[in-house]
Every structure is written in C-alpha cells, then in structure tokens.
Design goal:
Length: 258
C-alpha cells in the first residue's frame, strides 16, 4: 500500500515506520492514524520482520493530535472521538504485536505522540528530546496514555506530569523509567538494539511480550497457568530444540522463528 503520511522500510528483518508530516511535527490526523494502523498490522503478519522501529521525520517524533484540525472541525466532540479511536487502534496493535516495537525519539513527543512512545516496548531518545502529556494545555482531557503512565511510575508522579502538562527532557524521562537509553547517535543505538532481536528466537520473544502485557491485568493464579501453557507451547518449536541443543553443544543458537 502506498502511504501519504508515513513511510515504511524493511531491511535485514528490521522494519522502520517513519511518521512523515514534518510540517506539523508529525502530528496525528485521521489519515496518519489509519495509515499507521495499516502498516502495523501488515508488519505484524510479516514473517520476515523481527523488530519494528517507529521514528519521526524532521525535528519531532510526534507532536500529538493535529490541533489545527481540531480547531477546524465543525463537530469537535465527534472529531475528537474519531481521532482518539484512530490513535487507540495503533496503541492496541503495538501491544498485541508479537514483535518488539522500538520508539526512536528524535525530538518532540507531545500529547498523543508521548502516548505512542509509552505504548512501545523499548524507547531510545536523543539527549535533546522533549516530552509532555500536553492535553490539558488546550483544555482537553487526555485521550490516550493514562493507562500506561500509571503503570510506569508512582501515581503522584504521574499526576504531576499529566495534570500540570509539565515538559521534561530525555534524561528526566530516563530517570523516571520511561526511556531505556539516552543517546547522541540515535540511528546507531537503534541498529544496536534492533540487531539483538535479529539473533533472538522470535516465537519466544513474542510470547514473552504477550506475558508481560497480560501480567499487568491478570491475577497471580491465572497468570501462572498462562505461563505454564505458554512454556509448553514454545517447547514444541524448532527454536526451542535448537536452543537447548546449542546449549548442550556449547555453541551459539541459530533461530529461525519456527
């Protein structure tokens, strides 16, 4: 599919989604939401892709929802309802995808852009990246992100960020546990992280991601049962046979995703 608001590249089992509305800080409009969702679904089903990277073109990762479109909408409540649903579909697809998704934050990540960052599995940011929940600054209730942020930090710290729409930098985000690594060279860091997943067993990685997500809402007994079922399922894979065989033979395993 040919996209207008994003670009998609696949090279050496690494898929990159480039948000491509730099004149609007890559802000979400309905088209970007629909196209990003379509790309995520396609990559989720692509067996040749081991890891997905989301980046922004220009000086921002994603500036949030397109405020100019909000202003121009005749029926603003309906427009915001549709826009948040478009964003939510992308967030759900990221979390459902049995592949790691890395946010490469090259600049501003505000509002829904910050929420998109929170939905990703790993976050790498340049030193001058800026974050802000942003919604209340324009009189808008948060349309995305409150689910994840209260699971990433203490409630009071989350309240400070969301209720006051405080801007914070990459180092502060790292200190709060929202960013995995702060770097000077974003592309080199992304290549390093993505290359790790190319060597790991994709079935086991996907199942591990699923378990981490289910663990945020399961009770202990049900989650332990799910872990047992998943371990048994993965033990029937060729990758597991290769993994234990390589361990016994004291060599590096070569996983094929089967």
């Amino acid at each position: 599919m040919r996209y207008e608001t994003i670009e998609v590249y696949i090279e050496n089992e690494i898929a990159t989604i480039l948000l491509n509305r730099p004149e609007r800080l890559n802000s979400f409009d309905l088209k970007l939401g629909d196209e990003l969702y379509d790309a995520l679904r396609s990559l989720s089903n692509d067996s040749d892709v081991r890891v997905v990277v989301i980046k922004g073109k220009g000086k921002g990762f994603c500036g949030g929802g397109d405020v100019k479109e909000m202003y121009a909408a005749d029926d603003k409540p309906h427009f915001l309802r549709e826009l948040t649903k478009a964003i939510h579909k992308c967030v759900i697809e990221i979390r459902k995808m049995k592949k790691p998704v890395i946010a490469a934050v090259n600049g501003y990540a505000y509002g829904a852009g910050f929420s998109l960052v929170l939905a990703c599995d790993l976050v790498i940011a340049v030193k001058d990246a800026k974050f802000n929940t942003a919604f209340v600054n324009i009189g808008l209730a948060p349309g995305c992100g409150t689910y994840f942020i209260t699971r990433s930090m203490p409630y009071q710290r989350a309240c400070e960020l969301v209720l006051t729409a405080k801007t914070f930098n990459a180092q502060e985000a790292f200190d709060m546990g929202l960013v995995n690594k702060v770097v000077d060279d974003l592309d080199a860091a992304i290549d390093e992280y993505a290359s790790k997943f190319k060597k790991l067993p994709p079935l086991a990685v996907g199942m591990a991601k699923m378990l981490l997500n289910e663990g945020m809402q399961n009770d202990l007994i049900n989650h332990l049962e799910l872990e047992s079922e998943t371990a048994s399922l993965s033990a029937g894979s060729e990758d597991f046979f290769e993994g234990v065989k390589a361990f016994v033979e004291k060599r590096k395993a070569v996983f094929k995703g089967k």
